[in-house]
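Box S2. Input/output pair 1.
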Amino acid sequence: MDLEALLAAVLLVAVLGYVLLGARIAELRESAGSRPAAVLFFVIGIWVAGGAVELLAGNFTVFSIGRTGHFVGTALVPLVALVFFREYMHSRTRSSMLALLSVIPLVSITLAATNAHHEFMWYLPRANEAGEFLTRPALWGPWFLYVHLPYSYLLIGGAIVALLRQSSRIASAQRRGLYMLGAASVVPLAATLAYDLGFGPDTVSYVPFVLAACLPAYAWLVFRADLFDLAPLSYE
């Protein structure tokens, strides 16, 4: 087994972990935020699976499937996280607002899947001189730079800030879990920001590996820190 296959296997194990974690959380129907949290972990699983497909891709068609999985993650994770954090703090997101907030992420996913025809998300070439497919292009396209990127960071940044601002409105005994949830969100956000700014290799996306490494922390929050058993309830 070569290194790329080994790394892909690690990611696929993490995908299974995220699916199982999401399924476990989905069973907690009465807990605040459990349903969007389950969706969040499923979407993260798609993101990590996209990284595995990129590593195993032998042709551009397969590689494009992996890239689409990557943008499913970057487009939907901020939105689902926002809904999750709001519901965790007992604040519902109206269906009309959710539909409106979903427009740009869905357009981004569609553009990523069809990028070879228009280059709105990133510019070609699709591979370097050695024939290795580029996970991060030399130049990003206009939709990515001026719509997808700022919108995604605005959503996830606003979600984390809104979550942490609620700390003054909940019982002190429950703040520890809220702070840990915020910290667990900052790590993959920082990795994604570093990747988008050009740090690291351009033929392997390391964000899925960061997400895989975060899986034990998320599982600990759910099973050991009783994240959903102690969902904060704001009080006057």
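Box S3. Input/output pair 2.
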Amino acid sequence: VPSLRERREDIIPLANSFIEKYAKETGKRMPRISVAAMEALMNYHWPGNVQELKGCIERAIILSRDNIIYYDYLPPQMLGYHLTPQ
């Protein structure tokens, strides 16, 4: 299976799938991804693969206080990969 950096079109659908899964597991409303967080996910170099994305989404949902996954909730190594000003 090619790495995520070679399949960028799969990042958001996979992220949404993990969001749905973890929202159900935690009993939270299903959050949406902020524009800056989405840009960071799409622009990140993804040295890992799907498991790295899965961990990233799980972390963001745990940190989420409302129904939005903000850029700041992403792992530190992903910060700096967005284009939209915060």
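Caption for Box S3: The helical segments are 11-26, 35-43, 50-63. Residues 40 and 85 are 12 Å apart (CA to CA).
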